[in-house]
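Design review, sub-item: ligand-bound model
Attendees: FS, YL, KQ
YL presented the inputs for the pyridoxal-5'-phosphate complex:
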Amino acid sequence: MTSASAAQSHHGTDLSSVLPRSVARDDRGRLTIAGCSLADVADAAGTPALILDEGELRTSAREYRRAFASRWPGSSVFFASKAFSCSGVIRVFAEEGLGCDVASAGELAVALAGGMPAERILLHGNAKRDVDLAAALKAGVGLIVVDSLDELDRLERLVTRPQRLLLRANPEVSAATHEAMATGHAASKFGLPPEQLREATRRIAGSALLELEGIHAHVGSQIVELEPFERCVEALAGLVDLRELGTVDLGGGLGVRYLPGDPEPPSVEDYAERLIGAARGLLPPGCRIIVEPGRSLVARAGVTVYRVVSVKRASRTFVAVDGGMGDNLEPMMYDTRYEPFVLDANRPHEPCDVVGPHCETGDRLVEHAPLATPAVGDAIVVPMTGAYCYALSNNYNGACRPPVVLCSEGRARIVQRRERIEDLLVRDCDVELAL
Ligand SMILES: Cc1ncc(COP(=O)(O)O)c(C=O)c1O
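KQ shared the predicted structure:
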């Protein structure tokens, strides 16, 4: 069966654009991704479970590498690991030749555990503590992206061997996205204003061990227009002489489609074409261009499967499942909307709110979703949960974080087990502070 018809929901929506490209049905008519029946994976791993198509991750990584390398041979793609800071996922991207960016000593440890070579790691953060900088210096990360003059003081104090740096600029570029995800406008906490860029450049030039390699900017996340990315390149050219730099890091931010009915976002090819097009006249050919995609590398690879715990037909039909804001904060934080469906069900549909077990009315995964007459025990699939869901998962109300399952060629592997109640107690102690 073709994937388009395999992903037809009962009410006629074609879900193929919001599911991994491998989506199909097995000979029993059950939905599969990467050759694994989601029903079988949910039974074996339990629910909720975050299930990823490993092939989709690899395909996305290759698309990015090809799109940029074919236009700019000296380009590198770094996975923004904040989108899915899990060693099993990082390992896939490390194998595909990507680098990765980390935003703390914690993300750095996960990246190293995933086999990412330190040379291909860059450290970000507007408030890096000594512990973050020291861990990065000790590991020998390729680049540190400096985001304040205070950080330069810390680096000078901590550095013991040569370290290459980028300076994060504030490009003062606004992009249409949720305000929490816009990072490149004038009022953003990220990036150095022009006079501090100059000051930082002077100070690095006078340093024995710090070396200025280039500049960085990131306009924000879930951006579905290409024009802000072009303006960012132009803005950087207005701030520094790009011809004198070895590396220009243009951040990430390409948006994805969460609902099948959303307008199609720009492809990675279109994105690369416009970004490199803008860079061409401004950068010397030998300059290295880095991009740092997160969401657009992982979002489509992931689905979350929940189990229905109760169906309450009241003012609305509340379909309460076994996870919610503990494993997916996107709807609460960014108003992200999803198109859930009842797995392998062929029944009349009714509008439902899919809600979680947490003590907040806002703990709602989806509002007014047409679901196939859900019943207790049904499996509900929420597509497009590969980005930022795992990363933002939490223990609110004692929730145990779901396992991460990687599916490939009919086999499924747990790369992070489900959190257990004992895990909620492991940090408990009674230790007197030495005052
Ligand atoms: C510095 C930096 N680079 C890259 C990214 C990745 O963005 P996205 O996941 O939208 O591609 C982020 C996330 O906001 C970021 O802060």
